């Protein structure tokens, strides 16, 4: 699929609540995204969360095989954790300079979110329009779930769908050390056509924006003006114990 420009999509009225929360470990942060999806599914409503982390770690998509998609020996030697998320998509390296966001949105009564591909297009076009307004050149949507600026991917995204809500989350690179990707990940087994077999450091890049600027842009785009009063702390802890802190989950494939 070729890259496309991203005009601002027509707005749908999402009452989105805002949560800017980074927890002490990568496992807790990944679990919190899933717990927020469970919480929105149970009580209704929508949410936008931001989080960042200070040390490197690797996250594989739900169906990824660690032995194929990760240089596990290099990760283990450097004590870089390898974790698995609840959503699909490819494998990523995270760390300083990565801003994570997670959207929990209601599927019902929102036709744009009715399908996986429709949700990808709708959400990413809105995010791209918000970021383009703060950059000298426009952000493009490439492949199925990538955002690209000046020919380089700066954001990969994935989703997990439940009966009434979806979780759509991704990472935005803002001063990230891209040499870490070369160190901990081989070339992916599946590549979008627009990558054109480029090496990691020729393919990915950073946006020249601050974390605060990106948070403001996305919160404004999703009308996330009200802070979330409470987050699902107990559910997060349970998911860490039962899944995200276990080698049986993280390295099950």
Defining traits:
253 residues; alpha+beta; 9 helices; 12 strands; 32% helix
Which residues form runs of ≥5 with pLDDT under 50? Answer: none
Oligomer: single chain
Number of spatially distinct domains: 1
The run of helices and strands is: EEHEEHHEEEHEEEEHHHEHH
CATH topology-level fold name: BirA Bifunctional Protein, domain 2
Largest β sheet strand count, sense and barrel closure: 9 strands, mixed
The CATH superfamily name is Bira Bifunctional Protein, Domain 2
- Work out the number of β strands: 12
Query: Roughly what is the average pLDDT, rounded to an integer?
Result: 93
Helix content: 25-40%
Strand order of the largest sheet: 1-8-9-10-11-7-3-2-12
Total DSSP helices: 9
Strand content: 15-25%
- Report the principal-axis shape: globular
Spatial separation of the terminal alpha carbons: 28 Å
CA-based gyration radius: 17 Å
CATH architecture: 2-Layer Sandwich
Give an overview in words.
This protein has one domain: Bira Bifunctional Protein, Domain 2 (BirA Bifunctional Protein, domain 2). The protein has helices at about 25-45, 65-70, 70-75, 115-130, 180-185, 200-205, 210-220, 235-245, 245-250, and strands spanning about 5, 15-20, 45-50, 55-60, 80-85, 90-95, 100-105, 140, 145-150, 150-160, 165-175, 225. It is α+β, with helices and mostly antiparallel strands and about 250 residues long. The chain has nine helices and twelve strands. The strands form two sheets. It has a nine-stranded mixed beta sheet, with helices on both faces. Strands 5-4-6 form a three-stranded mixed beta sheet. The protein is about 30% helix and about 25% strand. The model has no long low-confidence stretch (mean pLDDT about 95).
């Amino acid at each position: 699929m070729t890259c496309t420009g991203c005009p601002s999509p027509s707005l749908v009225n999402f009452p989105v609540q805002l949560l800017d929360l980074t927890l002490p470990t990568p496992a807790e942060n990944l679990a919190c995204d899933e717990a927020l999806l469970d919480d929105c599914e149970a009580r209704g409503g929508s949410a936008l969360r931001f989080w960042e982390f200070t040390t490197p770690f690797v996250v594989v998509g739900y169906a990824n095989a660690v032995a194929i998609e990760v240089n596990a020996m290099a990760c283990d030697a450097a004590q870089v954790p390898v974790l698995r998320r609840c959503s699909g998509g490819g494998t990523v390296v995270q760390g300083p300079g990565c801003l994570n966001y997670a959207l929990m949105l209601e599927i019902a009564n929102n036709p744009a979110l009715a399908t996986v591909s429709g949700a990808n297009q709708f959400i990413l076009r809105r995010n791209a329009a918000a970021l383009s307004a703060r950059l000298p050149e426009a952000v493009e949507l490439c492949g199925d779930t990538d955002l690209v600026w000046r020919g380089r991917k700066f954001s990969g995204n994935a989703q997990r769908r439940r009966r009434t809500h979806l979780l759509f989350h991704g990472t935005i690179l803002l001063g990230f050390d891209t040499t870490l990707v070369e160190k901990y990940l081989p070339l992916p087994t599946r590549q979008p056509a627009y990558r054109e077999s480029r090496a990691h450091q020729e393919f990915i890049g950073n946006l020249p924006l601050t974390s605060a600027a990106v948070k403001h842009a996305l919160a404004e785009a999703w009308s996330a003006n009200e802070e979330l009063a409470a987050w699902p702390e107990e559910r997060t802890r349970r998911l860490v114990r039962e899944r995200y802190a276990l080698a049986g989950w993280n390295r099950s494939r």
